[in-house]
Design goal:
This protein has 114 residues and is mainly α. The protein has one domain. It is built from six helices and no strands. Helix 1 runs antiparallel to helix 3. The radius of gyration is 16 Å and the shape is flat.
Amino acid sequence: MTFLLLIGVCLLTCLGQVAQKLAVESWRGRELKLATKLFSPWLLLAIASLGGGLLLWLLVLQRLEVSLAYPMLSLNFVLVTLLAQYLFREEIGARHWFGIALIVGGVALLGMQS
């Protein structure tokens, strides 16, 4: 159950990050009022996703030590990088991929501890 909660936190916060990017992309080159930006669908999705992720995170912290749980959120780096490459056509260099591999290895090592 705790593992599923952690996955949920990762997915919701990842969705929140991507939705933030989509929000600012939808504003690019347009003169918009602040209220229009604040109530844009992508920004509302980002806020809802990040809020949901926060609530799940609180459940995770009830079940795991923060020193173990928090590094698991590093998987967001992996997910956001993959989505950035796929959705936004961002170029990801070899050094970046090497860093991602180190993160995945570190999370795997921590996961074996629990």
